Amino acid sequence: MKPLRTLVVDDEPLARERLSRLLKEAECEVVGELGDGVSLLHWLKDPEPVDVIFLDIQMPGLSGMEVLAEVPDGPPVVFVTAFSSYAVRAFELAAVDYLLKPVFEDRLEKCLQRLRDRLVRPLSPSELKTLLPPPVRFPIRAGDGEIYMELDLVTHFELENDRVWACRGQNRYLTRWAALAEVEQAFPEDGLLRIQRHLLLRPKMVKGIRPASVGRIKVMVAPKVELLVSRAMTPRAKECIRAGAP
């Protein structure tokens, strides 16, 4: 029997390496390993033929699911997730399969058999879009009440006098948080980066960088809005920003 050709997409190196190893042990061919949605986007511009993509559902930045939702003729997808709620939503479509982390050999073999029996079909963009999680929102103060803002609109968070402000470029909105650690705990999958004691950056919103003082950079998040990155965090900031660049 011809081995299944597979692509593994997961932002966690250990999880990615484990699944690739299990696939090879199951006599599958792993044609590639990718670590984020942007890499998948580049791969899809000139893809190798594959029988299935093993796709981590939750990845920082542009998710693989968001990428595939824009592809009209993609291969079958098996979702890999640590969150059973996502798996349940995905499996509501009968033609979808999923693996819960950590992946074990017996469950993987059942999934591979379904693929060999062609019980897992490619999903249309509209079907994939139904599986995308709803926008992440959080409350901001509005007079005596509050309104809800989408996290995707925020460029960074700023701490000032024990109050956290959500910033959208030059515009600032007062939140209910009193510490940046609370923001990090609220959005652990967003890839937030502490670039100063009082600044929490969303690297995916960075539009450009330039040198500042020796060993430091400034990041542009909106026209006329630049944030200074601490010397200690400059290497990490460069790494995160470039990883999310198209």
From TrEMBL:
InterPro entries: CheY-like_superfamily, LytTR_DNA-bd_dom, Sig_transdc_resp-reg_receiver, WalR-like. Keywords: DNA-binding, Phosphoprotein. Residues 5-116 form the Response regulatory domain. The keyword Iron does not apply. Coiled coil: none annotated. Transmembrane segments: none annotated. One of its GO terms (molecular function) is DNA binding. The modification 4-aspartylphosphate is found at residue 56. Pfam families: LytTR (PF04397), Response_reg (PF00072). SMART domains: LytTR, REC. It comes from the Bacteria. This is DNA-binding response regulator.
